[in-house]
Write a structure and sequence with these properties.
The protein has 330 residues and is an alpha/beta fold. Helix content is 21%, strand content 17%. It has two domains: 9-83, Ubiquitin-like (UB roll) (Roll); 135-327, Rossmann fold.
Length: 330
């Protein structure tokens, strides 16, 4: 490739509310892009993810030349990463501060099987919190509650991508973009999926969820943030759940049990935070009724009219939110 005669590759990155436009020679690599982004944001290259740069459903590796990216007039991407100064350091990692199980509010008798399970969960969760990395793509907005959204069978159904005769256009739940735009005015948004970050990035990029001007995704959590919960009842096996405490401890003074709600089609994911869970009907794109699904429209009404103005979301009867099903967003 003749670098002198070839036109530059144009890349447009978004970081928080700022944009970075780059015009690079085709022979430059993704590593070079990260160097420019690092200088612009102050985020070390090893902590950077450039969501949206890649092809064939995979993010581009550092040694890929920008000239080898799929042909586009402008390559748009989202900057994901955390500055070294903002990397969370849990005080429980400090030797002088031993981890203590606070059982003052524990409803079980000391030394009982349930008490031991609760203690095990508490100590294990402290370790997970210390190890977890949350890369905020957009900072929290003052006064906004947090909406934690599951992905598969809540916002979409990945089975449509398989060779089963179902058009890929049906894998996104109807009204998804309308729903996210409606709730964004009242909530900051986290996507939490029990799969890999790479898969999440691919799907959110394909749907334009990371670059749309209608709403923002504040941060994304993947399967590495799932918590293996020791059962408090008679169940014999541990269960992977989504522990909201991981988020709350990373954003002290911003979000807590009173201003966070979690929408999921799997109720067991609410195990550690049952008063914050809003169950949603499972979306299955293979069902004949899938194109007529209006669950997200009904949920938007409930979130905006009932949850958003609430002082403490744990005082709401989320199990009965479907009584708002007859309402419609305007």
């Amino acid at each position: 490739m003749d670098e002198d005669k070839s036109p530059p590759v144009v890349l447009l990155g978004k970081w928080k509310k700022e944009e970075l436009r780059l015009e690079l020679a085709p022979a430059k690599t993704i590593r070079d892009v990260k160097a420019h982004v690092s200088a612009f944001t102050g985020i070390e290259p090893h902590r950077l993810k450039l969501a949206g740069l890649g092809g064939h459903g995979k993010p581009a590796a550092d040694d890929v030349c920008v000239g080898d990216l799929p042909p586009k007039a402008v390559h748009k991407f989202m900057v994901v990463g955390t500055k070294e100064s903002d990397v969370f350091v849990d005080p429980k990692n400090v030797a002088e501060l031993p981890v203590v199980f606070a059982d003052f509010d524990c409803a079980f008798a000391p030394a009982s099987k349930q008490w031991r399970s609760a203690k095990e969960n508490s100590l294990a969760l402290s370790t997970i919190v210390a190890q977890a990395q949350i890369h905020a793509m957009h900072p929290p907005r003052r006064g906004k509650k947090l909406l934690v959204l599951d992905l598969d069978h809540t916002l979409m159904d990945i089975s449509a991508t398989k060779d089963n005769g179902i058009p890929s256009s049906r894998f996104m739940r109807p009204h998804m973009h309308t729903f996210l735009a409606a709730v964004w005015a009242h909530f900051d948004v986290c996507i939490w999926s029990q799969t890999s970050w790479r898969w999440i990035e691919i799907k959110l990029t394909e749907l334009g969820m990371l670059t749309t001007p209608d709403y923002r995704i504040n941060f994304i959590l993947d399967k590495t943030n799932m918590f293996s919960c020791s059962p408090l009842d008679n169940k014999a096996r541990r269960t992977k759940v989504k522990a909201l405490e991981i988020i709350w401890r990373h954003f002290p003074g911003v979000w807590d049990a009173r201003n966070t709600v979690h929408v999921d089609d799997l109720r067991h994911n609410f195990a550690l935070n049952p008063l914050n869970g809003i169950p949603i009907r499972r979306y299955d794109c293979a069902e004949a009724s899938a194109p007529a699904d209006a669950e997200l429209l009904h949920l938007a009404v409930y979130l905006v009219e009932v949850v958003a103005p609430a002082v403490d979301v744990t005082q709401l009867p989320h199990d009965g939110w479907e009584s708002h099903r007859e309402k419609r967003t305007k």
